[in-house]
Amino acid sequence: MRIAIAGAGNVGRSIAGELLDHGHEVMILEQNLAQMRAQLVPGARWVLADACEMSALEDARLETYDVMVTATGDDKANLVAAFLAKTEFAITRVVARVNRAENEWLFTPAWGVDVAVSKPRLLAALVEEAVSVGDVVRLMTLRRGQANLVEITLRPDTSFAGTAVRDVSLPRDTTLVAIVRGPRVITPSPDEPLEPSDELMFLCAPEFEDALHEALS
């Protein structure tokens, strides 16, 4: 997959490194010459350009990329870059970083944003995950709100202990995608037995989250 990242700060470079490790082709757009430190992410294509400028994005051939990540420290720049990527270059997937929580309401499909990543939201989700046993915790919204990545931790005294995944009755449009068990991340097979305190990760349509909670409570 070809992925463009606007912003070569710590966040942008970290994302680029992870994506390169997973075999993706990455371009980093950065307007500040002092931040152009290609030696830190040598596998990426580095472009000195303002991601908020149409001509710069045209020169970088943004239309040939599959995903745009706007990861600068400026919410205005992230929104403008996201909007241009979606409306002018028809990028299939636009992911935008939200720096200030009070601006989160702006990061919507109307501004070309498919997925908004907010540090406060992620931290809140992690806190909820740490303290909420038996409750459904929403970790991320996908496909413009059509699906959510949610987590539910089984209680230590759960009645599902020893139950195979195939025997757990789940709501419609709900798929178990991973089981976190201590330090292990398990890809669930139909015969995998559940254990107390398992953290279960689901992709779930929003309207079935309550039914998921009832099914596993």
Describe the structure.
The protein has helices spanning 10-21, 54-59, 75-87, 119-131, 209-216; strands at residues 2-6, 25-30, 45-48, 67-70, 93-98, 115-118, 136-142, 147-153, 174-181, 184-186, 199-204. The protein is elongated. It folds into two domains: 2-117, NAD(P)-binding Rossmann-like Domain (Rossmann fold), CATH 3.40.50.720; 132-216, Alpha-Beta Plaits, CATH 3.30.70. The longest helix has 13 residues, at 75-87. The strands form two sheets. It has a six-stranded parallel beta sheet with strand order 3-2-1-4-5-6, with helices on both faces. The chain is built from five helices and eleven strands; from the N terminus they run E-H-E-E-H-E-H-E-E-H-E-E-E-E-E-H. It is of the alpha/beta class.
Helical segment count: 5
| Helix percent band | 10-25%
| CATH T-level topology of the largest domain | Rossmann fold
Q: How is the main sheet built?
A: 6 strands, parallel
Series of secondary-structure elements, N-terminal to C-terminal: EHEEHEHEEHEEEEEH
CATH class of the largest domain: Alpha Beta
Shape: elongated
Strand order of the largest sheet: 3-2-1-4-5-6
CATH architecture verdict of the largest domain: 3-Layer(aba) Sandwich
**How large is the radius of gyration?**
20 Å
Q: Supply the number of structural domains.
A: 2
The count of β-strands is: 11
Tell me the name of the CATH homologous superfamily of the largest domain: NAD(P)-binding Rossmann-like Domain
Structural class: alpha/beta
Uncertain spans: none
